[in-house]
Amino acid sequence: MQDLILRRGLMLVLSSPSGAGKTSISRALLESDDALTLSISSTTRARRPGEVEGKDYHFISESEFKTRINDGYFLEHAHVFDHYYGTPRHLVEDTLRSGKDVLFDIDWQGTQQLAAAARTDLVSIFILPPSIAELEKRLLNRAQDTADVVANRMAKSADEMSHYPEYDYVIVNSDLSRSVQAVQAILTAERLRRTRQLGLTDFVKGLRAGV
Length: 211
Fold this sequence. Notes:
Number of strands: 9
Helix content: 40-55%
Order of helices and strands: EHEEEHEEHEHEHHEHH
Oligomer: single chain
Shape: globular
C-alpha cells in the first residue's frame, strides 16, 4: 500500500575528493534504481573522450555560463579546478514534483548552495577514501588526467575532506559493494521520511474512515 501514497522526490548528494569513489557509487545506484535520475550539470570544461552532450554534461562556454548565473538559471553552481559547473534549476524542480529523486555528483560548494536553496529536499552523503595512499592510487589508475592534474587534485583533497561535518551521512569507501548498499539503505529510509510523503494525511484519513 506504500506505493499509493504520493511522495515528493529528494535531492541525493554524493560528494568526495576526486578518486574516492562517488562516481562509481553513483553509477551503481542509477543502474539499480528506476526512481533515481542523475542531475545533468552544465560545465565550461572540455569534453573528455567518450562523454556525450546532454548525457554526461551540458557543455557551454564560460560567457554563456556567466550569463545564466545572472539570470538565476542554476540551482547551484561552483568554480572547480578552473572550470564552472552548475545545475539547471527547472529540470530538478520538475523531477522532484513528479515524485522521482535526483542524484547529484557535486562538491561541497554546490552542496552548501543546495542546502541554502532547498534544505528540506536535500540528503547529503560525503564519501571518504580509506587512506591517502589509496586515493592517489585510484587517481593514477583512472589514467584520465596528467600527473600535474593528479597532483593538484591530491593537494586539494585535504581541504575538501575538511567539509565532511556539513553532511548528513559519511561513508568510508573501502569496499564499493558495501558502500553502495549503505547509500541504498540511506535512500530507502529518507524516502520514508514522514514529511516527504505528501499523500500520507489523506491516506490515514481513509484508513480511519474504513476506506
